[in-house]
Amino acid sequence: MEKISITVASKCTDDRNAMVALLTEQKDFFISSIVDDSFSLIHSTIKLQPNVIVMDFRLEDLDCLEIAPIIKRNSPATALIVLSTPDNRIAVDRILRAGISGYLLKRQDFVYLALSVRCVSFGGLYISETIRERTTRYFPMHDFAAHGNGGASSGTGAARNVFTLTELQIFQGIVSGYSDHDIAVDLNISTGAVRNCVCKAKKKVGLRNRTQMSLYAMSCGLISPKKCFPSSVKKT
Question: What's this model's pTM, rounded to 2 decimal places?
Answer without folding.
Answer: 0.64
